[in-house]
Amino acid sequence: MITNRIIFTIIFFVISNFVAQSQTKTPNWAFDKSIYEVNLRQYSQDGNFDAFRKHLPRLKELGVGILWFMPIHPIGEVNRKGTLGSYYSVKDYRAVNPEFGTIDDFKNLVKEIHSLGMYVIIDWVANHTAWDHQWTKTNTEFYNTDKDGNFIPPVDDWSDVIDLNYDNKQLWNEMINALKFWITECDIDGYRCDVAGMIPIDFWIEARKQLDNIKPVFMLAEWDTPEMHKAFDMTYDWNMHKIMNSVAKGKMNANDIINHIKNDKENYPDYAFRMQFTDNHDENSWNGTVQERLGEAAECFAVLTYLIPDMPLIYSGQEAALNKRLSFFEKDQIEWKEDKFFQIYKSLNKVKKNNELLHCGIKGGEIEFITNNNQQNILSFIRVKDDKVILAIFNLSETPSVVLLNDNRLSGKFQNFHTKEEAEINKSLKLKLDKWSWNIFIKN
Known about the structure:
It is built from 14 helices and 16 strands. It has helices at 4-22, 40-43, 49-53, 56-62, 103-115, 135-138, 169-186, 201-212, 238-248, 254-267, 281-287, 290-294, 298-307, 340-354, and strands at residues 35-38, 66-69, 119-124, 128-130, 161-163, 190-193, 218-221, 234-236, 273-276, 311-315, 366-369, 378-385, 388-395, 401-416, 422-433, 438-443.
């Protein structure tokens, strides 16, 4: 006779096993990192791996942890957009774009990045290929077609690519084997997966399982729904990005940020990483530069991406105050110059790495909001874990403000991030913040 206790034990085991199978196992090295997106074509005059290598000491000094390379594969020529085409029109998943160098050049670059204590992920375009990919001749069944049997783009405007058919399980095998190739051959550490939500989640779950059997990988989905975390470590926080743009234009305020973060906490698993950003290749090229979208608030929101959960992104050139829309299909080199943003990002990367409260996912501190005398314009919160506390205050407006905080959680000796001086806080704090300014206090 089966007792209720036995039935309960069986049910508990089944549920626990399901949860374990559906949760990604993030590599230990990822929790204290920031991520840096490399637009190789525009990074230097030569726009290749060897030229990029010269920037590695600078990126090491900047303190970034993960280098994400936009697609490094050969670009399709049929129906190409512009002179050079889109990185995301992939002609061969197992080859390197000759404009960038050879696969041996890339292997050597990965080795050097690893020797500096940084990690490498590459962009993967699994949803579609170029019109002249070899599969269009050898495996036409891999593609979706119209009623006349013609290849079709996944989106009308994406006229330089054609849609893959994931009902075909042989395609799964080919794609997963190609994903394995770059890990076994070049020792990369994971992938950023383009339009990941346009592909069945079951494919990604199977791919992740097989990749982790080779080495623990880090997987970033270009998507923003909770179910993606069955296979991915990190998703885009697109809503936060849009809110920041709206706050900078005076259309939203600090309360909208608070509500969004609380909503995320309810809807995403606690182990999920959300990627925070003020710029990336799509935003820069199609929706405007950081200066166009955020204006004088650019620094304030760059800092905010480091203080809220989870992993901040720096796009190529942001550390040099990139202020132009980089052409997507043509050569359009980044202007490298010294700027205050280098030191800002360097300081933020250091505090993120060295302070557990700002680590990602389950290893980071809880975010708890502190009321203040100007709830619409002033965002104030703490990150807290055990007896560790970081206090962050942001003036999200054009108007200077005297900020008053009064909270029992604010007690002890804190270091002022700007001045490095020690401040004794006894449940209350008063400070003046200029427009779009900020400060951080770290409890000793």
